Amino acid sequence: MTGADPGRTGTRSLQTAWQALIDSGGLIYLGLVVLMVVFAFASPVFLSAENFANIGRQTTLVSIIAVGMALVIISGEFDLSVGSVMALAGVFAALAMKEFGHSWMVGGLVALATGAFVGMVNGVITVKLKMPSFLITLGSLSIARGIALLVTGTRPVNILSDDYIMIFGEGHLAGIPVPIVWTIVAAIGGVVLLHFTTFGRKIYATGGNTTAARYSGINTDFVKVITLTLTGMLAGLAAMVLTARSHAARPDAGVGIELDVIAAVILGGAALGGGTGTIVGALVGSLIIGVLNNGLNLVGVDPSLQLAVKGLIIWSAIALSKKRKR
Amino acid sequence: MSNTQGGVVTAERSSAPPLIELDGVVKRFGSVEALRGVHFDLLPGEVHALLGQNGAGKSTLIKIFAGVLDKDDGIIRVEGEETAFKSAAAARDAGVAVVYQELSLVPSMRVADNLFLAREPSRFGLVNRRKLVADARRFLEEQGLPLNPNARVEHLPFAYRQLTEIAKALFGEVRILILDEPTSSLSRGEEEILFDAVRQACSRGVGVIYVTHRLEEVFKLSDRVTVLRDGANVGTFETRDATMEKLVSAIVGPSHEGVVSEHVRYERAASGRDVPPVVELVDVSNDRLHNVDLAVRPGEVVGLAGMTGSGRTEILETIFGLRKVASGELRVSGEKKRLARGPIQAIELGIGLVPEDRHVQGLVLDHSIERNLALPHLDQLDFFGLFRRRESKTRARSVIDALSIKTPSSGTQAAELSGGNQQKVVFGRWSDPTPKLLLLDEPTVGVDVGAREQIYDVVRRVVSSGSAVLIVSSDLGELLMLTDRVAIVADGRVVEVLDVAEIRNEEHLHQIVQEAQS
Fold it and tell me: What is the pTM of this model?
């Protein structure tokens, strides 16, 4: 068969379009739309406003932490400790409020400071020991959880501050539930930092090629400490949202959330080696995971099977990102 | 000692047919002929040195021997029989083993494990560790290699790692051993360990092709020498009949006579003899340098000439704050500096570096040209924390124009550019503002002729603006063309500093560098 075969050229242009979609990282948006269409057909309640508010609420924790995790992964590092740090920050905040007259400000500050402190320790140890942060944060995952369990005697700590509960958990701002407001705040902060500041450039360069960044006069150690500190702080913010919503700080909160967070960032197009990725991508990744959880629930898929399906989705996202032209 | 051995071997040599013989081998890359009808033969038990400048065709020839590249024309005979060298496996079957510069060992494994790597199953079924070590020990003893099969490779000194590499290469039916600059990372004492191993192999009838830049080694070790230039044979000599002068002129060739007269003309403001040097090293020592004295004045171009591993790069790294000054003083514009904050401080002081390996040390390949160009200037492009994106784009465009970097836009990934254009991006970083001192490490390696001219142009502009340049280059002709003075570096020391006028030609400089080694 020669030359002008319309079927063939059709396939080819489809292929180029597909490749362009993969290269631009736009596949994730398509993935989100496809998922939503599928669930819309499968479940009558999926498209309701109430359900969307549900999804929003369910994804806030992962989304907030994913903003920080995106920074960390783009700078070429990793943080496995976020779930434990979230629990520890919540516990410390609740205990501090008990001590200091149930002030919401004390609670908020203690949560952020606890998260930031653990993140900074992660960062400093990582750069000083020149060890992979993957391993260092594996250690702090355990340490933070242990301390949280120890100081509470493994029991939840109740939160009695109504202000705290309203400001971080149950209130509304202009009709939007506050957890979503805080997610937006974190997201805007992340977008500005990563895409509009000089420091954002340093984060990308550090993850893209640490040696070249160092040779260009960038303090790559400082960059890594800061991204890990910020992630810890955002885990603290997530802790505030979580504890305010449940009126209590549980020392066993957030077990395994790091996996969802990392999956969201990778789904969102960040390269595991660092140097590429966006905040918006990470948020869309988090939404995909949220929609998936929600939709599979609505459709009535066995929760155990849900886990396996999530794993399959992550695999396919990684397989597709491999096809990306560099 | 090598002479007597050489003599004995010669007696055997004359009767035996060559192990391998190349006849009229041609290799083209696009329109460029890398090899233009090369002849080469290797006799059993001889060390045949292969010499030539960078780009003379040595690497291409080795790759053809290794079966990595296929010749476009010509004949290869193995023990008299014509053989196709179509793949690495075919070359291996013909008994060829190559030891490249980058070692291919697994550092965390033992010597024995490395020897048997990927060969355990086919020979022994399940891995029998005791037998593996015993066999390795027997093999090493047979070969006369002083290696402990139980030693972990990462704990071995560099010379012994290289021995392990050679042992690995000799494993199996190897008749032809090719060593590609095996001593470039070795210290003086360590070389002898390697030479002994080579002599051992030869005494067992193995033929060795020895690629090197150090002529001294040629005289110590080899029986014959073949010199390549511009992809063709200049000649094959018996080492006994060769002299250093003869070899150097064969390597450099006649076309480079009078190179000094082509020296780049600089427009300099005023002679800078009375101003303090931009950078001065006084008796500087650290892990790689010993008592280095060197000064670079404003408006001056100084070259560093020496072998790979001689300490040339380390001098640049020390000035750029990448290596600590253990003793002695580093002065920048007359003031003593410790550069405790590393490159950040060096850049603040007006020092720029174009590093040797642009892929590893220079560029973030996945990022755009604009991002790469902005890297050392992020603090200048900062507006209360915010990045001045438009300003950065404008700058990028002007650099792209000034250096005529061939790219569709400033947003193109650095990885998509050709080598020459990538190097221009690395240079472009230091075009605005011009540093007081520009350090260049092998600035034109892997760069096409056009880009090379533009890079020379940058040097010219830097000098005319009153700044200074310190260049490391293996291309000695380039040093003669660009520099005012040349410092000869060997074993981490500056052996001497010569005015370019004192150097007759490239050949002369070659000889000086060679002599500095001993």
Answer: 0.79
